[in-house]
Amino acid sequence: MKSIHKTHSKGFALITVLWITAFLTVIAGSVSYQARASLSLATNVVAGFKTKHAAEGTLLLTIDTLIKRDALQGFHLKNPNFNYELDDIAVYVEVADESGKIDLNLASVDLIRSLFVTVGVDEKVGSSIADAIADWRDQDNLKRVDGAEDQDYAANGLLYEAKDDEFDSIDELSLVLGVTPEIFARVKPYVTVFAQDIGVNTNLASDVVKKAVQDIIGTSNSEETSSDYISSTGGLIYTLRAKATGPSGLSTVITSIVRLQRGNTFEPFAILGWKQS
Description:
about 280 residues, alpha+beta, Pantoate--beta-alanine Ligase, Chain: A,domain 2, Ribonucleotide Reductase Protein R1, domain 1, 2 domains, 5-stranded antiparallel beta sheet, two-stranded parallel ribbon
């Protein structure tokens, strides 16, 4: 009996050791995983910090370049883009003059309608949206033929009404009745609230905007007709989009809207918008 008891004791001790070993192995694995996860998180935080500041720095450098070019030759007939290399971070900055876009507050209904059709929106839908935009920005409650006023927003279950005032940002366009997320994404690159002109500087415009203008003017050589859609202003307000990419592929994108303030040596520029994504 004594021998059997010793055997059972040894067996129990062995099982206990095995359980403890397994438990410690699990704990060690968990700690190791958490350590790797923490290290990975810390690495991403550092990488994000570096790309963020690289994007910010190159935006300021690009603004300085635009100010210097403006002082030398006025506004430019081409939108310059810039590539920068900061250690192991590559930064690409896109520059777009807002005068080459269609102003949601001042452009004619015809020009806005033409833009929607140009980006592939059905002509009838584009006409309705253009009228709805006009109803959104005007200060009366008179509904245009294909437009939308307060009662139309209510009828569609929306908890807001037509603004009856100017657009403060292009994001407001997504609130206009009939503008779906897909349609908004299509026209967003080509509209602005900063051009402050009924026309577009076609020398600074994208091919899409040029076509929208040309489809209205057609073959007409009338200067009066052209002046309603073509402008010669530009060189004051820009949208800058900086994308900084690190060696791991992690990127930071910052979009800024900047106004150059000619003649102001103390504040040569003003930031009108700043968004990181």
